[in-house]
Amino acid sequence: MTTDISGLSQLGVQIAAPTSPETAVLERVPNPHPGDLYLARFTAPEFTSLCPVTGQPDFAHLVIDYAPGDWLVESKSLKLYLTSFRNHGAFHEDCTVAVGKRIADLLSPRWLRIGGYWYPRGGIPIDVFWQTGAPPEGLWLPDQGVPTYRGRG
Question: At which positions is substrate bound (predicted)?
């Protein structure tokens, strides 16, 4: 089966990183296995955004799991979308939930969850979790594989 990529604007071309999440173009492609229940995972261990108060960089390890329906997220557009947060000021909770909702709105997946494992700010690590609802019965859900922050302990 060949996938029609004619409607994609970023794949196969050089493109500058978007300047904000609002201007980033997130694209989708048809799922070649829409009738199968499976999990797709994207891991972004070097996600960055800015503190909206101080302007200092914040760092997170994001894990995005979803059970596709008719659509898959196009990975280059996802990378560019996540990169667009580098100059975006928002709290950890806002960044994590906004990413999850944007992907869910684009794809209408059977199910989606995102784990945002943020490195400490002010000595306190913040982990943020969001999902679209209960996972479908029979979906294999591996652990996200990110240990809780232990510092030097």
Answer: 73-75, 92-93
